[in-house]
Structure formats: structure tokens, C-alpha cells
Amino acid sequence: MGETKHQGPIKATKALQPKHWVSPIPFGLGKVKPQHFRDTMKIALDNKDNFGYATRILTQGVCDGCALGVSGLFDQTLKGPHICTTRLNVLRLNTMPALKEEIVHADIDELRKYSSTELRKLGRIPYPLIRRKGERKFSRISWDEAMDVIANKMKKLDPKQYAFYLTSRGITNESYYVAAKVARFLGANHIDNASRICHSPSKTALKRSIGVGASTANYQDWFGTDVLMFWGSVASNSSPVSTKYMLEAKKRGTKIIVVNPYSEPAMDKYWIPSNMESALFGTKIADDFYQVNIGGDIAFMHGIMKHWFDMEEKQRGSAINHEFVEEHVNGYEELKASVQELSWDEIIESSGVTKERIIELAELLARSKNAVFAWALGLTMHSFATDNISQVANLALLRGYLGRKNSGLMPFRGHSSVQGSGEMGADPFVLPGGGFDAENLKRVEEIWGFDIPKWQGDIVGVTLENIVLPEDHERKIKLYYLSGGNFLETMPDPDFVEKALSELDIRVHQDIILNTSTLVDAKEAVIVLPAKTRYEQEGGGTSTSTERMVYFSPEIMGNKNEIKEARSEWKIYIDLAKRVKPETAHLVEFKTGQEIRDEIAIANRDYDGIQHLKNQGDVFQWGGAWLCEDGICPTPDGKGQLIVVDIPDLGKKEGQFVVTSRRGKQFNSMVYKETDPFNGAGRYDVLMNAEDARRLSIAEGEGIVVYNGFGVFQGRAKFVNIASGNLEVHFPEGNFLLPRGRYEKFAGIPDYNITVTVEKADRFNARKDVQYLEKQIEDLEVNAPI
Question: What residue stretches are annotated with the Molybdopterin dinucleotide-binding domain (predicted)?
Fold first, then answer.
């Protein structure tokens, strides 16, 4: 693979371009829009007790919010400072004082009255805590006692009976790596991480299509590409700084197209606070929206390809890049045959988009020399997600949008360093530098100096289900070690999740704050360990951005609200190893973060360079500016593979809807505002098409019930510009509608989309005792507090 190096940050276009303005009236007065400057003032006040430290985090640390990779106030894409409200919202987790003792040791039922949002605001975990079976409150415990309870339990269990999980709250590559190494050292292959429920299908699909599971392009490739397409992504909401890149792209002539069931206002009009022109006049982001049905993307892309092949019949080379395909791609004839067999009727019915509109987009792409395809959870959170993404790769391979400037495939990641979690091996199917296959196993065993168990570990969803297996089952999970995370608010079927968590013998929560899942009972004990943040980690730490930039974030001194007993996460894992297997624990011993980075560079050869990151601002990009440079893929024959995929059947019956979940003003499951600043939706609003509502005689704001055989969701109708037959509810509030045990067939992500029926609340409630055979679920009040 050739390696062109990234050129570093470039200057933004200064000239004003009024054609992209939302309105000449300054600050979008009179419009529904975020109040960025007001929010920023409020956040400054929230941090006033630790203002100096907060400022140092923002000016010296690598953002622990989204995965764009802003280091201090700067990044590798555009010159000039960047800051966004997502980062500011997360800031308080790093600066706040400890929880007050009267709260820490309050009666458990008093604590359970708090929502996760309220618990988060109360402060950090001050010292190790334990709550044994039958106890009403947490008691303080020493680190030694806490670690001994965990280690003694592990010694009694078969390693198939305990599991590790790491979330995405600013955990560093060093912590992911040590956790992955320690888990395997202890004999446990049940280790998983938060990217499982976001982007694991992206990795799986890209691996089979082009041989590499990461973004092949950079954000700079957006600037001046002919087309930038977002599939199922609200990039402006998850990663607000990306809007600055979108504005720069538009100024350089890029067309931005969004494919999403709901015409998301944040992808339509945005006021970018760190750009004066946009802060005043707003930016019209999307040039066009294609409102596909939920789950209709594969058919939609089949339609694009069908038209391309029709164009080819008339004139060879008018749509397909034959030179690229012949030299760099396998499977052309098979794909062509399968696409041509499909009728337009099938394509239109599944996609929900007219033939004329699909042809319009197909012809635009056929004329476009370059394109960058970016996608997020709208493509990944399906039972057929790997096929969704291989289909995007099919489009790119047919046009040769790969391995060069202004072109590529970009899984748009939401959280800082989730890209690193799998690359460090914190995943049941992965070891550092490769898969869980015989060749890589042998290689990693030689580096680590111990045998890795050969049985296949389970993904997080299956691990949760395995907690309720019969007592004598060899895979019954009895101890779960969680580094952050709240399964009650991220996984489908929260009622089951709560039951499962309470049936564990021991549950360990290594975290910064308490959340609702911390308060669930356990059969023997719940242990809570106070973790340091990434900014407190001794010797600093690294994180990997969406575009494969590995950034160094230094240890930041001077936290006035320091939690004296908190420990760096990687150090806690090493302590655990020493207690469970003292005689061989020297094999997983690290004294410093530098020692960990030195070993990462050997264990994952892509990361050769991480060992040189030592100071604030140090960064390197693994793989160079473009993966698959010049079209050469890291596959056995160096070629990309076109994959034939089928149009999925969602099993939707006459009169039913398909529902998916969306985020409002939140970071993962952490909610920061009850009302979405872009569309005014509350957390219990059901976003629906006005025409669909009229057919059901539903008025806007009316109480409605969304239900299926798995659960019931009571909310209010809110009319938005969404494709007919589709609904959106907020995540995690809507998770009660989702069944457990439905996983993506290749990557094991839970399915977050389901068919439902909608009724007026009064009609549903009047009839449910008589006619409904659904399992009974206690009604949620429409105005239930979160």
C-alpha cells in the first residue's frame, strides 16, 4: 500500500458566500434553533468552582466527546480554534467534585428516585463502595478489600463465567489494550465494548468488501469532492464540529446529500458557533434529502445501480468506472446479474423513493468524478447492517471512489476512541492487530508470553442473556466487570436487562459517576470502583479518531476537585491480574503509559508510531492519508469484492409502521436537554408523518400508543417531515419496544428497528383489557420523568 501522508490542517475559505445562508437576519432570530452562546455561558457557570482546570482540559486535552479528534482547540483538518457544545456538556464529568457522603450512603430506594441525568449531576464516585445482598445502602471499602472480593470470586469461577465490558466514555487506547490483555490472561474471552452497539457492522462489512475495517478517507477529502453523501447520519448532532467541515466543503463546491427517513433539521440548517459567518446567518447544509424508508437503503442503492447498468447498455463507461473495476474489483458480473433481475416495483416499494428521484441521484453520481460516502447508526443498527454497508461499498467500487483524494468510505463514529477499542483487542472477535484466528492468535501469544484460550467469547447481548442460564451451565455468567456503561439505557428490552443484572453474583462498576444500572441489586455484591478520567491518567493517554489519527492527550494537573482515591483504569486491571494469578502476573505488568504504547506498537503493527507520542499535540495517522491507496486493497489478491445482497423483508403488515430510535440533545444515553433544540421535540414525542396521522384521526400533540408484541410506548404525536409509514422515538426511552435476542447476522449488533402498530391512547386504553393479548406492561405516564 502506498502511503501518502496527511498534510495537516489547512486554511478555511475566508470569502463570505451568502448563497449558503439560512437567513440574512442575524442569529436566526425567530427560528427554532440551538442557543449555542447561551448554553456556553451556562456551562461556564457550571464549572466555575474549577474554572482553571476546565480551561486547561479544553486547551490541552484531546476531546473526550465525539470522534473527530480535536486536540486542545485545534485539529488536523482546518486551521483555527474549534469548540462545540457536546464537548462542553461532557466537560463537567471531569471537573465536578465528589458525591456528598449523605448521598453516597443514602438508602438505595432514595437513590433509585434519581434519573441517570440527576445522578450524573450529583458528582463523582469518591472511593470504592460495596453493597452486599440484603443491604440497604453502599458502604465504604478499601481498594484492597474491593479487589480481593472480585479476585477471590474469579478464582472460584470458570473463566467462561465472567465477562468484561468497556464503554466509550473517554477511555484511552492504553486502558482498552490492558483490559484486553488482562481478560485473555485471566482466561476470559467474553470481552466487549460500546462500539458493538454502534459500528461493529461497519468494520465487518468493510473487512469483507475492501479488506480493512476503518475509514479509508479524511475529513479534508470532503473539501471539493463532487458529492458528500450521509447515509442514516445526523453528523451535525453527534459531532457538531463536523458542520464546520461541511461549510468548508460547500464553499469549495461540494454537493451534500442526506439519505434518511426523517429530514433532520440539524442536517438542513445549522448555525456554527465557531464560524462567524455561520453563527450570524446560519448554513444551509444539505443540498438534497432522499427520504428512504427505515431499512430501505439496500433497495435504494439497488435502484442507483440498476439505472447505472441501464446507462451502460446505451453507452459503455457512462456510469461504471471500467478501468478501476477491471483492475481492482472482483464479482462484477454476479452483482450486475442480481441487480438487473430486480424489478423497479420491488425497489420502489422497499425504498419508498420514486423511480424518478433514484434516477436523478444515479445520474448525479455517474457524472461525479469523486464522492465520499459517510454513514452512521441509520445503516448500522439493523439486523442486516453488514449488507447495508457492503452495498455502500458496492457503489464506491463501481465508481472507483476509493484510495485517493476526495473519495472514500467513512463510517462516521460518534465517540472518542471507539475506533481504538477493537484495534486494541477489546472485542470477542479481535486481538490486537487482527482477528481471533489461528495465525494472529499464535503471533499475539508470542508477544504476550502466555496462552490465549481458544474458545470463542460472546458479544455483549448474548453475555447478558447468559446470566439467566441454569445454575450448572458452563457459560452462565456470574460476574460482570463493567468499565462504565449503562445497559438499562442502551440495550433492547430494559426489563429483561434489569432482571439479568440483578441475577449476577457480583457486578463491578468501574466508573466516574453513578447511573441507574449501578443501583440494581446483585445476589452477592455490587462493587463500585472510582476511575480517573482520561485527563488524570498518569503519563497521559491516546485516543484514535474516525480518520485513524492517534492523538496524545497529556495528564492535566491542578484539579481542585480531585478524587483522591480514584485510579487510572489500566492500573486497576493490572492490580486485578496480580490478585487472581500472582505467580504469572509479571506477564501483564506495565509501570507506565509509555511501556503500554511501546507494546501496542508491536502488537498492532498499524500502530507503529504510537510509541513516539509523548507531548501535547503529538499525533500520527495509521495507514496514511488514504487506505486502499491507488485502489489496492489489503485483501489476499489486492482487490475489492462486490457483494451481492438481498432486499431485506421487515415483515411489515398492512397498516403497520416501522419505528427506529433517534437521539435528541444527548451524548450516547446521557441526556442534556429534555427538548431537542432543532425541532422542539420532547423525549416522549413520537415523530410521525402528518398524512399517516390524519388517516388514523390523530391530532398533533395527542396522546398515542405505539405497541407490538414486545412492549408498549405511550407518547404524543409530533408531526415532522418523515417518510410515510415510518416513526421515530427517542433512545433510550423507546427501547421498551425492542426485543432482545435479535442480532445482526455477521457483527452481532442488536437490532434497533421494529414493526409496530399505532393507536390513539384513549382507544388503546379502553380496549386493551378486552382485546389485547400482549404481555402486560405497567403503563408509562405520558409525561413520565426521564
Answer: 659-738
In this structure, the chain runs to a length of 786
Q: Write the single-letter amino acid at 189.
A: N
Query: How many whole angstroms separate alpha carbon 611 and alpha carbon 594?
Result: 7
* Cβ neighbours around 611 below 10 Å, total: 16
Alpha-carbon distance of 160 to 467, in angstroms, equals 11
What cell does 631 get? 485502489
Q: Which residues contact 775 (CB under 8 A, 6 or more apart)?
A: 709
Contacts of 766 (CB under 8 A, 6+ apart): none
Q: Quick one: how many helices (H) and strands (E) in the chain?
A: 28, 29
DSSP sequence for 428-472: TTEETTEESSHHHHHHHHHHHTSPPP-SPPPPHHHHHHHTTS-TT
DSSP three-state, residue 140:
strand
Look at residue 785 in the predicted model and tell me its pLDDT: 26
Which residues, 6 or more positions from 200, have their beta carbon under 8 angstroms from its beta carbon?
380, 422, 427, 744, 747, 748, 749
Q: Are 162 and 154 in contact (CB under 8 A)?
A: yes
- Residue written as grid cell 480554534: 81
- The per-residue pLDDT for range 49-107, each reduced to its tens digit, is 999 999 999 999 999 888 888 999 999 999 999 888 888 888 999 999 999 999 999 99
Q: Which residue has the cell 494472529?
A: 440
Q: Which amino acid is at 105?
A: H
Measured distance CA(443)–CA(167) in Å, rounded: 27
Mean of the pLDDT values across residues 236-258? 92
What's the pLDDT band for 780 if we cut at 50, 70, 90?
very low
With H, G, I as helix, E, B as strand and everything else as coil, classify residue 740. Answer: coil
Backbone angles phi, psi at 288, to 5 degrees: -160, 145
Average pLDDT, rounded, for the chain: 92
Tell me the residue type at 137. K
Nearest one of 533, 607, 413 to 172, comparing CA atoms: 533
Q: What is residue 2's predicted lDDT score, i.e. its pLDDT? A: 56
Which of the 8 DSSP states describes residue 394?
H
**Model confidence over 391-418: pLDDT tens digits?**
999 999 999 999 999 999 999 887 777 7
The H or E element that residue 757 is part of is strand 753-760
pLDDT in tens, 635-651: 999 999 999 999 999 98
User: CA 628 to CA 635: how far, in whole Å?
Assistant: 10
Edge-first strand order for the sheet with 227-231 is 288-290, 255-259, 227-231, 371-375, 408-411
Closest CA to 219 of 388, 365, 66, 65: 66
DSSP 3-state percent helix, strand, coil across the chain (nearest 5): 40, 15, 45
- Each residue's pLDDT tens digit, 706-742: 999 999 999 999 999 999 999 999 988 888 898 888 8
List own/partner pairs for 516-519 with CB under 8 A and 24 or more apart. 516/112, 516/114, 516/115, 516/116, 516/119, 516/486, 516/488, 516/489, 517/485, 517/486, 517/487, 517/488, 517/489, 519/108, 519/111, 519/112
pLDDT at 249 over 80: yes
Which of the pair, 663 or 360, is modelled with greater confidence? 360
Give CA separation, 435 vs 81, 114, 207, in Å. 38, 42, 11
Handedness of CA 89, 95, 98, 100 (dihedral sign): negative
Closest CA to 517 of 483, 568, 477: 483
- Structure confidence at residue 69 (pLDDT): 87
